[in-house]
């Protein structure tokens, strides 16, 4: 399902969280879908189960997943909170990129024109990736 | 689960372990890190009840271990040099283990040696170091320990076997909440494997921490300013290490990422990057701030 880069500087539980967040945000993992169990994942990826537990705990705290004792972890249906955080992150990223473009001497209206040529995706349904 | 309190051990005039405290939770993989001669092996031997501490206590689940065969049945120790009886084969060793450890699982034993394709009838003394180590893992895992104490366990194993052994250990940790205490001076290897670490140097434990906590606690910043800020920029953070190249500052800073972020941004940096640190880097700087010679620690 996913691979972990053991040579990366990013801590393993953060890598796991990011991968799972991506899967949830992009709707690859649907609402109420069950996540792989800690044991299965630990065995599959040869990762310390406590590390996986920690990633799941963090994801639950951030509202991406919920857990039912004795049954496992599932993808949360509530996406509003997630979207807000993600939006904030993307906006900052955009600011940084546009800032750099402007610094490199691209005129502002050209940037605006570029944005205008982009089409808005249709809302709802199963996204567009 | 494993608790060592104020443990000290002296050999002749040499103090190998000085007033050490170690706490390992059940189902945890605890990495004991440190330089050669830091006292790791002695401490592990005390915890597995092979060496008696001069002072202090070592307990597993609240029970002392030394000279307690009933407690020792659940604790297995793999020393840094594999040891087998003279002229024995894997099968002969297995029958010894079976007699000593009442939770011995023969089926598991067969599965394991077939998996590692070791000849169970061959003399262990004729096998290579790596194969002998595989043999000790086979015997140990078949004895179904609750606590596994490993001294430099991956030494001499090729990458494939190494990964397989790690996977087997992780299965036991996640399926039966086995507790692992493992020593190493190879930080890179411990980074993926452990969830808690203790660092030893010259007979003492410098600190023990949750590994991820340790990693999120320290970050490396790269900042550049159009105009250099005043001293409050550095004094407002817990800076462990600082390097300045032209206008670019590289700082190793302790503290919560959010707090650091806010602090740095308030000075309006032109460039600002945060890099997570590797375990090796954390040690280098942490030890540096305690005044230890770092080049000795990282092998």
Structure description:
- The complex is a heterodimer of chains A (129) and B (299).
- With 129 residues, chain A is mainly alpha-helical.
- Chain A folds into two domains: 12-75, Winged helix-like DNA-binding domain superfamily/Winged helix DNA-binding domain (Arc Repressor Mutant, subunit A, Orthogonal Bundle); 80-117.
- In chain A, 53% of the residues lie in helices and 6% in strands.
- Chain A has helices at 12-25, 38-45, 49-61, 80-103, 108-117; strands spanning 65-68, 72-75.
- Chain A has a two-stranded antiparallel ribbon.
- In chain A, helix 1 (12-25) packs across helix 3 and helix 2 (38-45) packs across helix 3 (49-61).
- The longest helix of chain A has 24 residues, at 80-103.
- The model of chain A is unreliable at 125-129 (pLDDT under 50).
- Chain B is an alpha/beta fold and 299 residues long.
- Chain B folds into two domains: 2-202, Rossmann fold, CATH 3.40.50; 214-296, Alpha-Beta Plaits, CATH 3.30.70.
- Helix content of chain B is 35%, strand content 30%.
- Chain B has helices at residues 40-47, 69-72, 90-100, 106-115, 129-142, 159-176, 187-193, 211-217, 232-235, 257-265, 279-290, and strands at residues 2-11, 14-24, 29-34, 55-60, 63-64, 75-78, 147-151, 179-184, 196-201, 204-210, 218-224, 238-245, 248-254, 271-276.
- In chain B, the strands form three sheets. A six-stranded mixed β-sheet of chain B has the order 6-7-8-3-9-10, with helices on both faces.
- The longest helix of chain B is centred in the middle third of the chain and has 18 residues, at 159-176.
- Chain B is elongated and about 75 Å long.
- The two termini of chain B are 30 Å apart.
- The model of chain B has no long low-confidence stretch (mean pLDDT 88).
- Chains A and B meet through helix 1, helix 2 and helix 3 of A and helix 6, helix 7 and helix 8 of B.
């Amino acid at each position: 399902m996913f691979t972990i880069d053991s040579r990366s500087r990013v801590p393993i539980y953060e890598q796991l969280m990011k991968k799972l967040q991506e899967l949830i945000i992009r709707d690859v993992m649907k609402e109420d879908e069950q996540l792989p169990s800690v044991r299965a994942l630990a065995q599959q990826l040869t990762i310390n189960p406590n590390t996986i537990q920690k990633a799941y705990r963090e994801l639950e705290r951030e509202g991406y997943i919920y857990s039912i004792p004795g049954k496992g972890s599932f993808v949360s249906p509530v996406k509003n909170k997630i979207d807000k955080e993600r939006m904030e992150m993307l906006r900052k990223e955009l600011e940084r990129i546009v800032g750099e473009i402007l610094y490199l001497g691209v005129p502002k209206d050209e940037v605006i024109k570029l944005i205008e040529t982009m089409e808005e995706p249709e809302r709802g349904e199963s996204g567009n990736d | 689960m494993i608790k060592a309190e104020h443990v000290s051990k002296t050999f002749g005039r040499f103090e190998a372990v000085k007033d050490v405290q170690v706490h390992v939770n059940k189902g945890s993989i605890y990495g004991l890190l440190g330089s050669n001669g830091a006292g790791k092996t002695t401490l592990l031997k005390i915890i597995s009840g092979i060496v008696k501490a001069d002072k202090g206590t070592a307990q597993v689940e609240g029970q002392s271990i030394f000279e307690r065969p009933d407690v020792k049945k659940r604790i297995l120790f793999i020393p840094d040099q594999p040891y087998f009886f003279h002229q024995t084969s894997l099968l002969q060793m297995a029958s010894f283990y079976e007699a000593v450890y009442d939770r011995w699982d023969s089926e598991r034993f067969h599965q394991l040696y077939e998996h590692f394709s070791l000849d169970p009838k061959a003399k262990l003394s004729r096998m290579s170091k790596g194969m002998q180590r595989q043999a000790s893992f086979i015997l140990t895992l078949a004895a179904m320990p609750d606590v596994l104490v490993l001294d430099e366990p991956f030494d001499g194993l090729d990458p494939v076997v190494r990964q397989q052994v790690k996977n087997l250990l992780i299965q036991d940790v996640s399926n039966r909440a086995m507790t692992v205490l493992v020593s190493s001076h190879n930080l890179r290897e411990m980074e993926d494997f452990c969830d808690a670490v203790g660092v030893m140097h010259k007979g003492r434990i410098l600190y023990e921490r949750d590994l991820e906590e340790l990693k999120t606690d320290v970050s490396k910043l790269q900042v550049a300013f159009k105009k250099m800020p005043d001293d409050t920029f550095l004094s407002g953070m817990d800076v462990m290490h600082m390097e300045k190249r032209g206008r670019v500052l590289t700082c190793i800073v302790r503290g919560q990422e959010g707090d650091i972020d806010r602090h740095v941004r308030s000075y309006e940096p032109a460039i600002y990057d945060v890099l997570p640190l590797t375990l090796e880097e954390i040690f280098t700087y942490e030890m540096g701030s305690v005044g230890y010679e770092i080049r000795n620690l990282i092998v």
